[in-house]
């Protein structure tokens, strides 16, 4: 299951549910079929929707009042990985990268990918070294990450040399 959004509360007075999207476009949160809860059961089946500045508002048979929508606030929304479209070359879903083995160019195991971050300036891979040291973050660029093999769950890294102390 892939996290695509969360319930942000009610919208209006007729039981519309406000969804916060974790997808590239706001409507992505409702584009891949029914929305599942953390327990793996279908939570919402949107009938109609409209875009909001910070997400979408949906009408669904499962929520009949504003109060019901407010009670659901904060619940995470998932879709099955199989419902997502295939990616273009050099595009990856975060879920597919997590748990991959990070390797240096010479094959040395650097650790396992534990997170992918984006603070606004591009994606950053974070891996946990096998020796238990602190996690390491590296920018996810073609230069620093020359090869991704999703089938083998392997990511090859070529990090830039560390800056000298005092820089």
Q: What descriptive keywords fit this protein?
A:
mainly beta, 6% helix, 167 residues, 6-stranded mixed β-sheet, 13 strands, elongated
Question: What would you note in describing this structure?
Answer:
This protein has helices at about 65-70, 95; strands at about 1-10, 15-20, 35, 40-45, 45-50, 55-60, 75-80, 100-105, 110-120, 125-130, 135-140, 145-150, 155. The protein has about 170 residues and is mainly beta. The relative contact order is 0.15. The model has no long low-confidence stretch (mean pLDDT about 90).
Indicate the topology.
Blueprint: E1 2-11, E2 16-21, E3 35-36, E4 42-44, E5 46-52, E6 55-60, H1 66-71, E7 76-79, H2 94-97, E8 101-104, E9 109-118, E10 123-128, E11 136-139, E12 147-149, E13 154-157
Parallel strand pairs: 8-13
Antiparallel strand pairs: 1-2, 1-7, 2-6, 3-4, 5-6, 8-9, 9-10, 10-11, 12-13
Q: Reading side by side through the largest sheet, how are the strands ordered?
A: 11-10-9-8-13-12
Question: Helix-strand pattern, N to C?
Answer: EEEEEEHEHEEEEEE
Cα separation of the termini: 43 Å
> What is the overall pLDDT average?
89
Shape estimate = elongated
